[in-house]
Design a protein that fits this description.
44% helix, alpha/beta, 6 helices
């Protein structure tokens, strides 16, 4: 073991990645209400991601409101299994959703989500659009256009 490596192991602790367990919430933005689904920074923990998606679904289905939904997926590996689970959840809550904005997904995550939406009519009826910025997504969600 080199001296620098030994010195680093003695003085610097390794930072372990801790999943972000923030609860999803409703936010007022530019005169409209946006439901923020916090599914970010969960890495590849499939069970934890599924639990959070299910909890979001249950919260949205408890009221007779229609939501503008922002899925924040930054730092979460959207493998095909996760994308399929999210899309099934969104289809089940379709009557409670006006528009969906997805922020922070990788190119492979976006491709996995699009593969799950095999029917173009399903994709259009859900009103899904991808964004790289939370502010752009919130602005689009509260705007009148699709």
């Amino acid at each position: 073991m080199g001296f620098q490596k030994w010195l680093g192991s003695k003085f610097f602790k390794r930072i372990k990645s801790v999943p972000d367990l923030r609860a999803s919430f409703s936010l007022y933005h530019n005169g409209g209400e946006v439901w923020i689904s916090c599914i970010d920074n969960l890495g590849s923990d499939v069970q934890l991601i599924k639990e959070k998606v299910k909890k979001n679904e249950d919260l949205m289905r408890t009221t007779n409101k229609q939501y503008r939904v922002l899925y924040h997926l930054d730092g979460t590996d959207v493998i095909y299994e996760i994308a399929d689970y999210i899309m099934e959840s969104l289809v089940r809550t379709k009557q409670n959703i006006l528009k969906i904005a997805i922020v922070g997904t990788t190119r492979s995550g976006k491709n996995n989500i699009n593969k799950c939406l095999t029917h173009e009519s399903t994709r259009r009826s859900l009103g899904i659009k991808y964004f790289s910025s939370m502010d752009q997504a919130k602005d689009w969600l509260v705007s009148e256009r699709y």
